[in-house]
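Continuing the series of single-chain predictions for the mutant panel. This is the parent chain; the variants come on the following pages.
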Amino acid sequence: MTVKEKIINSLIRTALDLFCKIDKSDLNKIPLKGPAILITNHVSTLEGPLFYVNLRPRKTIAMAKAELFDKFFTRTILSTWDAVPIKRGAADMHAIKSCFKVLEKGDFLCIAPEGTRSKTGKLLRGKAGTTLFATQKKVPIIPMVHWGILDLGKNAKKLKRTSVNIKVGKPFYVEKKTEGKITSEDRQNMADEMMYQIASYLPEELRGYYEDLSKATTNYLTFTD
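Parent structure:
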C-alpha cells in the first residue's frame, strides 16, 4: 500500500467513523483472499469508500463510471484504488478485460448488478450483463448489502451519527446447469437470481423490484458449503 493510499484511506475512515455508526461485524464472513465477486446494492457514491476502507486488507477493486475520472478529486481517489473506469450505455471491452484481470490476479471484484444508483434505496432490476464475469471465471459470488447511508445528509444537519448496516450472505456459483449456449434470457434469469439473494438480506421495504421473495429461484445457483 502506497503512502498516498494510506493517507486517503485514513482520512475517509475517520470521516465515516465521525458521521456514521457502522455495523461491520459481518465483513468477517468474507475471506481475506480472492478471487471472488462481491455483489451489492447501489444507492450512493459513498458506498464505494465505505466498503473499500472497511474491507482492508482485502484487495478489492470496483468499477466506476468514467465521468468520475473527469474530476481531479474523484480521479485521484479512484486511481489510487485502481478502480476500473467504465463507459455506460455500450460494451466497454477495455473495462471488461480489466475486470477479468482483477480476478485472474486473485483479487476481489466488486459489482453492483443494478448497473445504476437507486435514488430511493429500493432495488432496481439487475442487468443481464453483470453475469459475464461470474460465468466466465467460475469464481464464488458473495452478496454484500448495506442500508442506512442515504440518511447521512439528513442526520448530519442534526449533528446526529447515521447507523449503517452491512450484511454478508452465503457465497454461491452461477452457471447454466443444462446443455446449450448461455442465452440472453439465461443471463437475465441469472441476474434476477443474484438480485434475489441480495434482496433476502435487505429490510423488506428496500427490496424494490425483488420484494416478493416467494418468486426467488436458484436454478442457476450452486451454494458453497
